[in-house]
Here is the input.
Amino acid sequence: DIQMTQSPSSVSASVGDRVTITCRASQGISSWLAWYQQKPGKAPKLLIYAASSLQSGVPSRFSGSGSGTDFTLTISSLQPEDFATYYCQQVNSFSYTFGQGTKLEIK
Amino acid sequence: EVQLVESGGGLVKPGGSLRLSCAASGFTFSSYSMNWVRQAPGKGLEWVSSISYSSTYIYYADSVKGRFTISRDSAKNSLYLQMNSLRAEDTAVYYCARDLASVAGYFDYWGQGTLVTVSS
Here is the structure.
């Protein structure tokens, strides 16, 4: 199975900050990567698919980049509603695997 | 409005069985591949199983292969997960999720989840 490793595991930031989360695949996955946001007690929400495509309805402050094994999710200017846990997911091959998550906390 | 509503979770003893259901509405269910994803308490997300729109292709995570069976009924707009030989490590919130149209593996709509607890 392809392993997905996110860093950092947690990050503290302030409203208005720019934040970057990274995700590394254990082998090349082209651009077959998604990013999800999850708030406590809620289902995950798809933010980015195909590494850099913004899902409909997601604010443009979210962006994704990368291909092969290294990927990033960037939030350009943090808003109060962005504090949550973020997961990457590879869909290059079954079984699909998720990263361990990055918890974004208020500083 | 797309809606996915899971049901069937509960407390079950190790070795027992449970059948989860996911009722879909607001879209043409028969045109989309569907999935189950689980999340153990306080842990991350784990993909469990996928079924193509026509049920032709079915995939399972190694952790559930041979014990869980995914199925769907387009007449009832419903997705199912039959879980047998349950173990403590199967304790989790189980979500059903829809594939993004024509792009397998990206989950654009999720249900609210149903909790399965495996304990004696």
Notes: The mean pLDDT of chain B is 96. The interface with chain A takes residues 37, 44-47, 50, 59-62, 95, 97, 100, 103-108, 110-113 of chain B (CB under 8 Å). Residues 40 and 92 of chain B are 4 Å apart (CA to CA). The first strand of chain B starts at residue 3 and ends at 7.
